Amino acid sequence: MGRDGRGVKAASQSSIEITFTYKGARCRERIALQPTPANLKRAEHHRSAIMHAIATDSFDYTATFPNSNNAAKFADQRGDVELIESYLEAWLKRQKPHLKASGWDGYRKIVDGKLIPWFGKLKVSELKKKHMREKLQESTASNKTLANIQSVMRKALDDAINDELIDINPLANWCFSKIEPPKEEDEIDPFSKDEQAIILEQLTGQARNLIQFAFWTGMRTSELVALDWGDIDFVRSVVRVTRALTQKSKEAESTKTAAGRRDIKLLQPAVDALKLQKQHTWLRGAEVFQNPQTGQRWTGDQSIRKTLWTWALKRGGVRYRKPYQTRHTYASMMLSAGEHPMWVAKQMGHKDWTMIARVYGRWMPDADATAGNKAVGVFARSPSELLSNATV
């Protein structure tokens, strides 16, 4: 009654044994059918379906043979046992030494706030594109946020491959996005010359020095609060930016990009602010700017807003914008005055000027009637030279 050579044979009076190879191992499984000719034929079809599933990497051992010892063995080798929740928690801990504090905190928020609530009870091997697509379709977040969520999950699954929990990453080379309406306006909202003057009039001492310096250097808030007196070169009149201090980091970290490490030319209003600031923190030789309420280094944007920024704008009747707009104000002032976009880009820590042109293009002056004349004067031949060449 057996069908040797076809991977199917009678095992007992009430069962049939199926033999196949899975992940390099020879597997034998029994199905509860009497080994009649019809049932043996049926078992052959079942084995063929198993072989096809193995070939197309869609075979689920546990689902096909839930009571098999082999299922447990192969589950230990794959992500058929470990839940996404436990894997992500362990994975997140492993990432901490390799990420900046702000970057790791962003990962943590996505893992704890989205991925674990969405997929935590699934096994690692069970996650498919459709699961991610369904959750992202329901979300009201922007495409940028959706991309960040997918990026974190994709990186975790890449590591799950290295951990031999899964063979392929279901999110590889795939990214979900929604059709978004055109943005009404970007977030570039600089302060006018009069608004700057009003804000500074409301402030005194260290608070005024900080904001004036911010307006005239274009430094990010995280860079301003990390600034030490050792970063100031009064001889060359530059400030060296190498570090940033975010809300989540306990100490200053290197700038996010290589272009972010830069020398910023100190314009006179920035120099004036530093000279006045010397009487407050120069002798300590550490941080340039301090929170006047604590006598310690600022901890970030939030403490500046609460301590002096919101109060100054409200008292001066200036429409509220975040402190980061001092950076955009600097860019708009430089470009409106006709400074070269590449120079502005380097001052602000961008590797090229394409972003400057894209974001701040409306502050670049249009060409005037004399535009191009300098090039003509330097490179064009004189009328007499042109005439003599034409008559040769």
UniProtKB/TrEMBL annotation:
<protein>
    <submittedName>
        <fullName>Tyrosine recombinase XerC</fullName>
    </submittedName>
</protein>
<dbReference type="InterPro" id="IPR050808">
    <property type="entry name" value="Phage_Integrase"/>
</dbReference>
<dbReference type="Pfam" id="PF00589">
    <property type="entry name" value="Phage_integrase"/>
</dbReference>
<dbReference type="InterPro" id="IPR044068">
    <property type="entry name" value="CB"/>
</dbReference>
<dbReference type="InterPro" id="IPR004107">
    <property type="entry name" value="Integrase_SAM-like_N"/>
</dbReference>
<dbReference type="InterPro" id="IPR011010">
    <property type="entry name" value="DNA_brk_join_enz"/>
</dbReference>
<dbReference type="GO" id="GO:0015074">
    <property type="term" value="P:DNA integration"/>
</dbReference>
<dbReference type="Pfam" id="PF12167">
    <property type="entry name" value="Arm-DNA-bind_2"/>
</dbReference>
<dbReference type="GO" id="GO:0003677">
    <property type="term" value="F:DNA binding"/>
</dbReference>
<dbReference type="InterPro" id="IPR010998">
    <property type="entry name" value="Integrase_recombinase_N"/>
</dbReference>
<feature type="domain" description="Tyr recombinase">
    <location>
        <begin position="186"/>
        <end position="373"/>
    </location>
</feature>
<comment type="similarity">
    <text>Belongs to the 'phage' integrase family.</text>
</comment>
<dbReference type="InterPro" id="IPR022000">
    <property type="entry name" value="Min27-like_integrase_DNA_bind"/>
</dbReference>
<dbReference type="InterPro" id="IPR013762">
    <property type="entry name" value="Integrase-like_cat_sf"/>
</dbReference>
<dbReference type="Pfam" id="PF14659">
    <property type="entry name" value="Phage_int_SAM_3"/>
</dbReference>
<dbReference type="GO" id="GO:0006310">
    <property type="term" value="P:DNA recombination"/>
</dbReference>
<keyword id="KW-0233">DNA recombination</keyword>
<feature type="domain" description="Core-binding (CB)">
    <location>
        <begin position="78"/>
        <end position="161"/>
    </location>
</feature>
<keyword id="KW-0238">DNA-binding</keyword>
<keyword id="KW-0229">DNA integration</keyword>
<dbReference type="InterPro" id="IPR002104">
    <property type="entry name" value="Integrase_catalytic"/>
</dbReference>
